[in-house]
Structure formats: structure tokens, C-alpha cells
């Protein structure tokens, strides 16, 4: 939190069917130095999608729709594509439609990071926005993963139409109230009446700037909640659809949500897949890990759990700058008895990049260079070799690490090694030693 300037972070951990740890760090409001608590509300961003998926599963369980129903059965949208796209495709981000940018513009315009404006407040507005989407299709439905916020907006509208009640009211009746999630909201009025809400902040370039809540993401990312409520939500998944002795949804539906149907293009784990609004891997230290994170820039969130071990975690922040997903995996790996500093790949790589930052010098200080970390990469600048050279990590072990870059379109290997001289770098013709 100190390093990336996060204003606050709240966390809760469940194990053996109960809450075993909850804690709040930092300020829900930095101006007044008001402390955050485990009851404080935050935007949960795309974790909302799992509630939307669970609501769809509930309607299927009640026999009111089918996963393979075409979207056009419920919504009037232009073009033939929605005759081919099923609810299953929207749930798994396999509609074949690449991201259209609606949610991003909606968030960025609200917080002042974009001058673009897309005031979409209804399904008719979304239908107008998507009227040319047939020409934008990238793949056949079911064949390729494209994360599509607009798809979850449409699923929310399907829930409203089939249930005959507004999206939030259905989610509240079927999910929130049975789970005693009495402080999970969707609207500004509800949050303001509650009163205990974290102030949203833009955390950028070492500065923390007060912002506004970007309302309007709805069923794709609009819920506000707290870690205590989210603990009950995770317990329901760990108990295969039950909470406090009451069945919320059938075990089969939970298992369906946790089944990987599509493969995202980016993942820490080689087997990672996407179910119904849940990322899934079976290679988390030999365990099945189920998770989802979310970001609406001024709030970040994450939920994760290990169904076979009965443990789970939720995290909420009023700013972005560090992945809740990595924080969650850090905690879960610790609970498995692992040392995340050594055993968890993202943490190990992060420590490596920090270790390699500094000033490097050639023989008798004839030439020097600087290395700084930039996200997942290193940036090298120096005399004779140029500025802002991006070094991409390839491999690492106790004795050193290998990176690569491009030089005049040619691929060039860059080696780091740890020895009696400290840290050394071999770059093109030069041998450098780190001096600080």
C-alpha cells in the first residue's frame, strides 16, 4: 500500500464454513483521515458478473430459460448475429464479438479521464450502440474468448425481462437476501442512505486524487459491497450452493459456473479457463483455484477460493495500482503452507524486477546505465546504448535471469547473474556491474 499509494484495503478470509479473519487497512477518506473498516462499501467492478451469472443459473434452474437460448429470443437487437449467440456464449465471453469499449468510456468519462461520452441508460440505448456489431464479429460464437462487458449488460436485461422484475430486485430477492448480504447495493441512493462508503480515488504516478463513483455499469460491474457480505457469498460457493443450512442454488449450477469453457489469452497458469463469470485453474499448488477480480479504476476488487480446501478470500480497495488477484493468491498460498515469496511465480518475478533496478557500470566506470522497473518489464537507458530499451523477462533461477529485447528488429538476449561481485548484466558487447 505504501509503495503504490493505495488509500485503503479491506480483506476477509473464510475457512471451514466460517469467517476466520477480517481486517481493514488505511483510509476510506484520506482528506479527513477516516479509517476504513470491514463494513465499508467499495465498488466490486466485474465481480458483479458472477452475481449476474448466478442469477441466470437460478432462472435456468427454475425452468424459465435455457443456457442455449439465443439472445434474440429475449431482446430485440439488430442483425442476425444474436440469433447465433446463446446465453452460454455471453456467460463465457465467447460471443465472437471483441470488446466494444462501452464500459471503459462510461467509467473514464465519469472520472474525467476521457472526453468521449456514451450515455447508455437502457437496453434500447445499447441496441442502438450495437447496431453495426454484425460487421465487427471476429469469430464464430463459441470459438474464441473475447472479454465483453456489453454481453453482461445484455444478460442483466435478459434477467429483468424473464423475471419480470428489475435486475437488482431479482438479485436481491434470490441471492443477496438469502445470503444476508444486506449491504450490497447497485444505486447511488442506496449507497448514500447507508453512509459508510469509501471515497473513490485515482491513484496515478504516485499521486492520490479524489474522484467520483462511475455509476452505470449495472449487471456488468455496478455492485457496491463490503468484505463481510462477500464472505457469505464465497461461503455459498464453498458449500456448493448452500448457506447457513439453506440451499440458494443447486450443486450442479455451482459446478457449471466453475467449469472452464473458454481460454483467456492471458493467464499465469497454462490450464486457466473461464467458466460462468469465474476464472478457473487446477494448477494452483495442486489445487483448484476459482476467482474473479474487478476494476472500475477508482475501486478494485477480488474474490478467490479453493473449493477442495474450503478456504476463500475477498479484497476491496478504493484505488488501483496492485492486483487484488495476486494479493489473494499470496494469502491462499500462505494458507496452504507455502512461502509465496519463493513459491508464487508473480511474487518471485516482482522481487526479481525490484532486485535488478539500479545503476550499472562498465569497467572502471567508463560507461554507465540505469535500469528501472515499469510494470512487468525493465527499462534500460544508458550511454552508448540508447534510452528506454524494453527488457522482457524470459527465465530466472537462483543464479540469475534472462531477458530479451529487439535491436534493429533482431532479437537480442540480455543476461543477469548473481555472483560474488553482486549483480551483473551482459548487454551486447558490455559487462556491467550494479553499483547500487
Question: Can you give a write-up of this model?
Answer:
This protein is α+β, with helices and mostly antiparallel strands. It has 13 helices and 22 strands. It has helices at 48-61, 81-84, 87-91, 102-110, 123-129, 149-163, 167-176, 188-194, 227-238, 251-257, 324-335, 340-343, 345-356; strands at 8-15, 18-29, 34-35, 42-43, 201-204, 207-210, 224-225, 242-243, 246-247, 273-274, 279-284, 287-295, 300-306, 311-317, 358-361, 368-374, 377-382, 386-397, 400-407, 410-419, 422-427, 430-434. The strands form five sheets. An eight-stranded antiparallel β-sheet has the order 3-2-1-14-13-12-11-10, with helices on both faces. Helix 1 (48-61) crosses helix 7. The chain is globular and about 80 Å long. The two termini are 24 Å apart.
Short descriptors:
single chain; 436 residues; alpha+beta; Beta-lactamase; Lipocalin; eight-stranded antiparallel barrel; 13 helices; 29% strand
Quick structural summary:
The protein is an alpha+beta fold and 436 residues long. It is built from 13 helices and 22 strands.
Q: CATH homologous superfamily of the largest domain - what is it? A: DD-peptidase/beta-lactamase superfamily
Q: Over the alpha carbons, how many angstroms does the gyration radius reach?
A: 24 Å
Gross geometry: globular
Q: Which strand order spans the largest sheet, edge to edge or round the barrel?
A: 3-2-1-14-13-12-11-10
Counted up, domains total: 2
**Percent helix:** 25-40%
- Poorly predicted sequence stretches spanning 5 or more consecutive residues: none
Report the β-strand fraction as a percent range. 25-35%
CATH structural class of the largest domain: Alpha Beta
Mean pLDDT comes to 96
Write down the CATH topology of the largest domain.
Beta-lactamase
Supply the helix-strand structural class: alpha+beta
Q: What profile does the largest beta sheet have?
A: 8 strands, antiparallel
CATH architecture of the largest domain: 3-Layer(aba) Sandwich
Report the strand count: 22
Query: Total number of helical segments?
Result: 13
Amino acid at each position: 500500500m505504501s509503495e503504490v499509494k493505495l488509500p485503503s484495503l479491506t480483506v476477509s478470509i473464510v475457512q471451514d464454513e466460517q469467517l476466520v479473519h477480517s481486517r481493514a487497512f488505511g483510509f476510506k477518506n484520506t482528506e479527513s483521515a477516516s479509517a476504513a473498516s470491514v463494513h465499508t462499501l467499495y465498488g466490486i467492478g466485474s465481480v458483479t458478473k458472477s452475481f449476474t451469472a448466478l442469477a441466470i443459473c437460478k432462472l435456468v434452474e427454475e425452468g424459465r430459460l435455457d443456457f442455449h437460448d439465443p439472445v434474440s429470443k429475449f431482446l430485440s437487437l439488430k442483425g442476425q448475429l444474436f440469433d447465433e449467440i446463446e446465453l452460454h456464449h455471453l456467460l463465457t465471453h465467447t460471443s465472437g464479438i471483441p470488446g466494444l469499449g462501452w464500459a471503459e468510456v462510461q467509467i473514464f468519462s465519469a472520472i474525467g479521464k476521457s472526453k468521449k461520452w456514451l450515455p447508455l441508460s437502457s437496453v434500447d440505448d445499447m441496441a442502438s450502440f450495437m447496431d453495426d456489431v454484425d460487421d465487427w464479429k471476429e469469430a464464430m460464437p463459441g470459438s474464441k474468448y473475447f472479454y465483453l462487458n456489453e454481453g453482461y449488460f445484455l444478460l442483466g436485461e435478459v434477467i429483468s425481462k424473464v423475471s419480470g422484475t428489475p435486475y437488482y430486485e431479482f438479485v436481491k430477492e434470490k441471492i443477496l437476501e438469502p445470503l444476508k448480504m444486506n449491504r450490497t447495493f447497485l444505486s447511488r441512493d442506496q449507497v448514500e442512505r447507508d453512509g459508510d462508503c469509501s471515497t473513490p480515488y485515482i491513484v496515478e504516478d504516485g499521486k492520490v486524487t479524489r474522484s467520483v463513483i462511475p455509476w452505470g455499469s449495472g449487471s456488468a460491474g455496478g455492485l457496491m459491497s463490503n468484505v463481510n457480505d462477500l464472505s457469505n457469498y464465497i461461503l455459498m460457493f464453498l458449500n456448493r450452493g448452500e448457506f447457513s443450512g439453506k440451499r440458494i442454488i443447486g450443486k450442479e449450477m455451482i459446478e457449471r459456473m466453475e467449469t472452464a469453457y473458454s481460454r483467456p489469452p492471458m493467464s499465469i497458469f497454462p490450464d486457466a479457463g473461464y467458466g460462468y463469470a469465474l476464472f478457473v485453474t487446477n494448477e494452483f499448488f495442486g489445487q483448484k483455484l476459482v476467482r474473479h477480480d474487478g476494476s472500475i479504476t477508482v475501486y478494485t476488487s477480488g474474490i478467490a477460493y479453493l473449493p477442495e480446501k474450503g478456504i476463500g478470500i475477498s479484497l476491496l480497495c478504493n484505488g488501483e495500482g496492485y492486483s487484488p488477484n495476486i494479493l489473494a493468491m499470496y494469502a491462499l498460498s500462505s494458507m496452504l503452507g507455502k512461502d509465496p515469496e519463493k513459491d508464487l511465480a508473480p511474487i518471485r518475478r516482482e522481487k526479481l524486477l525490484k532486485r535488478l533496478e539500479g545503476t550499472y557500470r562498465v569497467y572502471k566506470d567508463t560507461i554507465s546505465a540505469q535500469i528501472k522497473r515499469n510494470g512487468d518489464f525493465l527499462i534500460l537507458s544508458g550511454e552508448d546504448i540508447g534510452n528506454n530499451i524494453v527488457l522482457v523477462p524470459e527465465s530466472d533461477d537462483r543464479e540469475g535471469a534472462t531477458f530479451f529485447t529487439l535491436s534493429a528488429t533482431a532479437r537480442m538476449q540480455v543476461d543477469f547473474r548473481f555472483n560474488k561481485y553482486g549483480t551483473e548484466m551482459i548487454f551486447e558487447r558490455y559487462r556491467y556491474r550494479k553499483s547500487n
